[in-house]
Fold this sequence. Notes:
Elements: H1 39-49, H2 57-66, H3 80-95, H4 108-122
Helix pairs in contact: 2-3, 3-4
Amino acid sequence: APPTRMGDRKRKIDLIHPGDHPQEGLPPLNPFTGRPYSLRSREIFEKRRALPVWEQKTKFSQMIRDNQAIVLVGETGSGKTTQIPQFVLEVLNSVYTKKCVACTQPRRVAAMSVSQRVAQEMDVELGEEV
């Protein structure tokens, strides 16, 4: 993959594999709430699909299934903080009935901000599933 330049809107992530471009959409019902997704959530979903990390979703999901530990390196803005936990949860959700994904941030404000964003993207209530 060609190197990115500073100022590019899309950032590179180190899992790039040509031909890895999942095109799936949202299911009709949110698996966490059992309700239809909101219009806002559908809009956010389209933005998520534009993130560089989304191109690696299939490959990453398979890596989660095949390995106990993974080291992921990606540039700022590539979607690591908000997307990877959701990908992990999606894989775990397909295998286990009880699951939990824990993420850390160096500061409380950052943790709250990321949590709120992930809850919006998942179309769930902050403090419940996230």
